[in-house]
């Protein structure tokens, strides 16, 4: 029933070419961020053509987004469309770790174990000790190492270290120029749920052109 509702909504979006803002509202109403469905589920409808769907996702994902890959980093890294990402694995703050975050970290570690991704743990020791694990595509290890050096200083309050990077910081993570600008400006005009809707659209746009699936070919899934 949920999949059919999503297919119906996208048929309407494609036929009526709704303005971006109205399309976001319709997708937010359906709560696409929490459905667990993706672009391949929408293509299950014979009336929806892949090229048109790709164009629609690109249109819906075009504006800059704060935290553009939040909630989808593991999928995008495993699919090969995100160059570098990282996750917090320990902190001085007693924050509960969501089961979804644990599951995604297990998936990323499995991708490293089978040679799909490269990884490195980084521990930062200052007034707020923390440990992060970076993941990257195997051909982006030099970029990851460059970013890690700056990452350590960034958390030490040395934002000037970003100027030493050889390219804009957002490009290391696969962000668009608009994303980077949006993050820096930090506008607060849209609801968090609406930003999550945009993130879902961005993830689907990227996954449609990914060189591989974000599901493992051997069917492996975390046992959690």
Compile the SSE list and pairings.
Blueprint (H helix, E strand, L loop, with lengths): L1 H15 L3 H11 L8 H4 L7 H12 L11 H7 L4 E8 L7 H15 L4 E7 L5 E7 L4 H14 L14 H4 L4 H9 L6 H16 L17
Antiparallel strand pairs: 1-3, 2-3
Helix pairs in contact: 1-2, 2-10, 4-10, 5-6
Structure write-up:
With 224 residues, the chain is mainly alpha-helical. Among the domains are: 63 residues; 91 residues, no CATH class. 48% of the residues lie in helices and 10% in strands. The protein has 10 helices and 3 strands; from the N terminus they run αααααβαββαααα. A 3-stranded antiparallel beta sheet has the order 1-3-2, sandwiched between helices. The two termini are 27 Å apart. The model has no long low-confidence stretch (mean pLDDT 84).
Question: What labels describe this entry?
Answer:
224 residues; 3-stranded antiparallel sheet; globular
């Amino acid at each position: 029933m949920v999949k059919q509702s999503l297919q119906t909504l996208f048929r309407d979006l494609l036929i009526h070419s709704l303005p971006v803002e109205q399309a976001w509202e319709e997708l937010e109403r359906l709560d696409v961020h929490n459905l667990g469905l993706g672009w391949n589920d929408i293509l299950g409808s014979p009336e929806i053509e892949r090229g048109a769907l790709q164009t629609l996702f690109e249109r819906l994902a075009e504006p800059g987004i704060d935290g553009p890959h939040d909630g989808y980093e593991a999928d995008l890294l495993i699919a090969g469309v995100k160059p570098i990402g990282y996750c917090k694995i320990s902190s001085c703050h007693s924050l509960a770790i969501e089961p979804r975050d644990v599951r995604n970290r297990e998936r990323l570690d499995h991708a490293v174990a089978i040679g799909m991704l490269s990884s490195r743990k980084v521990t930062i020791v200052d007034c707020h000790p923390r440990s992060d694990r970076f993941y990257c595509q195997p051909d982006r290890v030099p970029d990851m190492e460059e970013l890690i050096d700056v990452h350590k200083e960034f958390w030490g309050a040395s934002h000037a270290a970003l100027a030493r990077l050889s390219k804009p910081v957002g490009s290391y993570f696969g962000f668009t120029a608009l994303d980077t600008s949006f993050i820096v400006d930090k506008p607060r005009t849209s609801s968090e749920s609406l930003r999550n809707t945009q993130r879902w659209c961005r993830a689907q746009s990227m996954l449609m052109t990914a060189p591989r699936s974000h599901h493992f070919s051997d069917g492996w899934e975390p046992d959690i």
